[in-house]
Design a protein that fits this description.
By secondary structure, the protein is α+β, with helices and mostly antiparallel strands. It folds into two domains: 155 residues, Up-down Bundle (Four Helix Bundle (Hemerythrin (Met), subunit A)); 244 residues, Alpha-Beta Complex (paralog of FGE (formylglycine-generating enzyme)). It is built from nine helices and twelve strands. Strands 10-9-8-11 form a four-stranded mixed sheet. A three-stranded antiparallel sheet has the order 1-4-12, with helices on one face. The longest helix is centred in the middle third of the chain and has 34 residues. The chain is globular, with a radius of gyration of 22 Å.
């Protein structure tokens, strides 16, 4: 894992800046949970999702386990039982409460979880303010990882609460907002990229998760990439043309999943008086035909690409196209709850000869299985379980979405989900050979 704290960059000013970023991140997590009732924060909708209360506690467990307990002299854990209740998947950190039963944890109450967060925050403030140079050098990479880890859980918190609300006949809105359609999306066009040898992967300058490196060369054939993601309106044409019932568009496992699950449209879509509606974080509204389609699985994305006569890009093709772009877009900003964010928006018009919406709005499925780059080695110790052990049977997504914290994404960022999963803000961008 590389970090934003480079070798020798462990001065008091550097640590103070890291501390301010930590405080801002911790406050944002609590702000995201604030619109929810205590009852909202207890329930677990499906095994893939976690209750909000668990997210609040788990990210605190991360700092307590990997930083405070080993590095702050005299630190006393808030409650020894929390080491079991709020461990996610770190076998090296000890026993864990079963993931499918996180929604059973009516105790500890939310008030105790918030007290736990305050306890950990106080400990982190003490650690950062008293650390000597040697300790600063040791802890800075882990603090940076902890910040980015909590940002990941901010996105998961929003994804998971939307999934929970989708099961409620009341159709609650996380942050009620206007359901009007966005402006028409920019016209679709193809952007061409040359073949040859290209370098992808993180180069070690600044923070990256361990799975983003090492940087290495890949050989690509000339290809074209869609200028924007596929829209809801374009997906409606796929549905109308029998896209979910024609087996020739689908991988075998994908079509078996469609039949077993009864899929007829993206997750959260429902027809009302002949018009497609969907539940969003802003509430239940007519589907915006101009916005990027989201909440589709890899199987669905691949089927749409085949139906359109194209394909999904590989992650290397996607990264080469994104490398020189500024990683910004419709993401979760600090004022997100006061704007029309929290849902994908239509692609803005541009005169630049480059793809748009590569960052934000929706994660984009690629055709690449999630695996290790050449020369990959997970970090030593329990923290090495972060990414490496999941490198099987999943597919890579790139870019970020409307629930990804601002500044969290970059061209080398690799997200990954199983091909049948679709509760994430996941969409697609088309590619084709030249």
């Amino acid at each position: 894992m590389s970090t934003a704290i480079q070798t020798g960059s462990n001065t008091r000013a550097d640590i103070d800046l890291l501390g301010r970023r930590l405080t801002d991140t911790r406050r944002r997590t609590e702000a995201l949970a604030a619109p929810l009732s205590p009852e909202d924060q207890v329930v677990q909708s499906i095994t893939d999702c976690s209750p909000t209360k668990w997210h609040l506690a788990h990210v605190s467990w991360f700092f307590e386990t990997f930083l405070l307990t080993p590095s702050l002299p005299g630190y006393t854990p808030f409650d020894p039982l929390y080491a079991i209740l709020f461990n996610s998947y770190y076998v090296g950190a000890g026993p864990r409460h079963p993931r499918p039963q996180r929604g059973m944890l009516t105790r500890p109450p939310l008030s105790d979880v918030m007290a736990y967060r305050a306890h950990v925050d106080a400990g982190m403030a003490t650690l950062l303010s008293t650390a000597d140079e040697k300790t600063r050098t040791a802890i800075a990479p882990l603090v940076e990882l902890g910040i980015n880890h909590e940002q990941q859980h901010q996105e998961l918190l929003l994804m998971d609460i939307l999934n929970l609300f989708s099961l409620n006949p009341c159709q609650p809105a996380y942050a009620p907002g206007d359901g009007t359609s966005s402006a028409p999306a920019a016209p679709f066009r193809w952007i061409e990229y040359p073949g040859g040898i290209h370098a992808i992967g993180h180069d070690g300058a600044g923070f990256a998760f361990d799975n983003e490196g090492p940087r290495h060369d890949v050989l690509l054939r000339p290809y074209q990439l869609g200028s924007r993601p596929v829209t809801n309106g374009e997906w409606m044409a796929f549905i109308t043309d029998g896209g979910y019932s024609e087996a020739s568009h689908w991988l075998s496992d994908g079509f078996a999943t469609v039949q077993a699950e009864g899929w007829e449209a993206p997750l959260y879509w429902e027809k009302v008086n002949g018009i497609w509606h969907s539940l969003t974080l802003r509430g239940f509204h007519p589907v915006d035909p101009h916005a990027p389609v989201d909440h589709v699985s890899y199987y669905e994305a691949d089927a749409f690409a085949r139906w359109s006569g194209n394909r999904l890009p590989t992650e290397a093709e996607w990264e080469v196209a994104a490398t020189d772009l500024i990683p910004e877009g419709n993401t979760l900003g600090s004022g997100a709850l006061d704007t029309q964010a929290l849902r994908p928006r239509s692609a803005p018009a541009t005169d630049r000869d480059e793809p748009i919406q590569m960052f934000g709005d929706v994660w984009e499925w690629t055709a690449s299985p999630y695996g290790a780059y050449p020369g990959f080695r997970p970090p030593e110790g329990t923290v090495g379980e972060y990414n490496g052990k999941f490198m099987a049977n999943q597919m890579v997504l790139r870019g970020g979405c409307c629930a990804t914290p601002e500044g969290h994404s970059r061209a080398t960022y690799r997200n990954f989900f199983y091909p049948h999963q679709r509760w994430a803000f996941s969409g697609l961008r088309l590619a084709r050979d030249v």
